[in-house]
Structure formats: C-alpha cells, structure tokens
Design brief:
D-Maltodextrin-Binding Protein, domain 2; 45% helix; 15 helices; alpha/beta
Length: 328
C-alpha cells in the first residue's frame, strides 16, 4: 500500500523555490494529483488492476494509491457506494446497480471477461447441460455480476427458474474447495478458479458465459472523485492505456506478476494452467459502439427484477471524455 511520506526541509525549500520561480515567470505550477483509493477483486477480473498497481505505471504518471482487495467486484461497488473507495472494477450489472444506489460513474470500459466465466459441475455427476442442474446445489456469489447473469439469464434460458435448483451462497474463492468436499454440485465461477477445478479433475464445463455475454468490465469512480480530480482521472487512464499495451506486448511479464499474487495466497497451479486462464481476459480500454445497447438491455433485466429503480441515463453515467483526453 502506498503511503504519503513526510516533507523534509529540503523538500520544503525545493517546493517553495519552485513556487517562487513559477510566480516570477508567470508559470502556474502543476497541481498535485490526488491519491487514488483503488478497489479490485481478487479473481481474474481484477488482475489487470492488480498488475496496474504493481507495474509502476501509476507512479510514472504521478499517482499514489491505496489498495482494497475483495473477493468480487460487487463488494468493491458497495464500498464505493459507501465512499470508502474511489475507483473499482466490475461488470455491467454491478455498475448499473452502483449507479442506481450511489451515482457511480464509468470512466472507461477496460476489459472483456466473458471467456473467464463458466458454469461448472462436478466431474463425477456427468452433467453436460444447464437443465440437468435441476434439484442440485449450485454455488453462486449472490449479487455479483456472474451471479446475476446466471440467475437472470443463463438458468432461465435453460428452463430453470429460482427454486428449481438450490443456490448456495459463497465467495468465488471458496467454491473449488466446496466442489472437492462435495457440499455443492456445481458453481458459477470465474478464472483462475475454473482452471484450478479443471486441472485438478474436479469439474467440467457445462456452459461458458461468453455464449450469452461478452461481459465488459468497467472502471468506475465515485462522482465526488471525478468532480474534484479530473486531472487525476486523465493521468490514471494514461496508465491504463500502457497496461493494455503490456498485456499485448509483454504477456510473460504480466503473467509472472499476476501468478505471484495467487501463489502468495497458497493456490497450487502450474504456470501453464495459469497462463491459459489469464489469456481469457481481453484488456482493451475503450468505448465500443455496442456498449450502450448492451447496458440498456442489462439494466432493463435488473429493473424487471427490482434490483434498480430506473434505467440510467447513459449520457451521464458513462463519462467518455476522460479516456479521449488520455488518448490524445
């Protein structure tokens, strides 16, 4: 976690000297950028953000940060609604809920993660279709984007309504152990947990989320932070553009950085298995043209399920101008 250091006499003299020179020559000194309280989830969706924090790119652009790691993005969203965190990543459904409950704003779509999310079932059950989950125990992180999409879209399309299966609420990082213990029959989960369950011979894929949803993930910010610190937001997104470049041009460096995180948490998996899981994340900061229709559809589903009070005004919720400035 980054810390603000104390100001020494030498730093003070340097700062006041620079201010005096600026005043003498009529130059306005550059405003100091605000420290970012960064939230991220410890599954694969949050790993591009984790890499950002470890890459030195924020410091390169003059930004200090504090980090807040949680199991899934909907928890980061809740922290942001409570104004405990300034920025965080999560998919469309969680963003729409966060905007509804706390006025949260999207400053960029940063990645697609549809290929990282799967519905998986215990290998010994020989399940090949979603409809076969009827009457079984399905581990689900209730309230998360993966959880909402499974309950509201994937299960209903297979003819399963709430009550047709037993939803077992748990964090994504506990699901593989639950499969191994046979306390659940299936899980709606994300990487790298899917790859771990597969490599350990515990589970097989029943359905991939990418068949239903590309799952764009947003970098969201609180409206307070955006209003007070537009320069910081632009500098922050410049760092993100460099992160995207690293994912394309330095995949080994990225994989080593992220692998070390899971290794430090005690996860056992080969680097090859991990690299395949990481490759399912598509990092590409931008504002694709099909994003608003997608978010409109997702929000109408949430509205119908009484999870939001109204469909957001996308011209206000999606703040596209900052990424344009960062890209200029």
């Amino acid at each position: 976690m980054s810390q603000k250091g104390g100001i020494t006499r030498r730093h003070y003299l340097a700062a006041t000297g620079a201010g005096a020179l600026a005043a003498t020559f009529g130059v306005k000194p550059a405003a100091a950028l605000e420290t970012v309280r960064q939230g991220y989830q410890t599954n694969m969706w949050g790993m591009p953000t984790y890499y950002l924090l470890r890459s030195g790119l924020l410091e390169k652009h003059g930004i200090k940060f504090e980090e807040f790691a949680v199991p899934s993005g909907n928890l980061t969203m809740q922290q942001m609604v409570a104004r405990q965190v300034d920025m965080g990543t999560y998919a469309g459904p969680s963003f729409a809920i966060g905007h509804d409950k706390g006025g949260l704003l999207a400053i960029a779509m940063i990645e697609y993660v549809g290929k990282t999310a799967r519905v998986m079932a215990r290998k010994d059950l020989n399940i090949t279709k979603i409809e076969q989950l009827k009457g079984l125990k399905v581990a689900n992180q209730t309230g998360s984007s993966t959880g909402n999409i499974f309950v509201d879209q994937i299960a209903p399309k297979a003819g399963l309504k709430k009550g047709d299966y037993q939803e077992v609420r748990m964090n994504v990082d506990d699901m593989v152990a639950a499969l191994a213990a046979k306390t659940v029959d299936a899980m709606a989960n994300v990487e790298p947990y899917n790859a771990i369950a597969e490599a350990d011979g515990l589970a097989v894929t029943v359905s991939e989320y990418s068949q239903f949803d590309k799952l764009p993930v947003f970098m969201a910010a609180t409206p307070d932070f955006v209003q007070k610190n537009p320069e910081t937001v632009v500098a922050y997104l410049k760092a993100w553009l460099e992160v995207a470049n690293d994912f394309k041009s330095k995949p080994d460096k990225v994989a080593d950085t992220v692998y070390s995180f899971f290794e430090s948490k005690g996860f056992k998996m080969s680097k090859d298995t991990f690299a395949k899981a990481l490759a399912r994340v598509e990092v590409q900061p931008g504002w694709p043209t099909d994003l608003v229709p997608y978010m409109q559809e997702q929000s109408e589903i949430l509205l119908k399920e009484n999870k939001i009070k109204a469909v957001p005004d996308w011209s206000k919720a999606l703040r596209t101008e900052f990424l344009k400035q960062a890209s200029a």
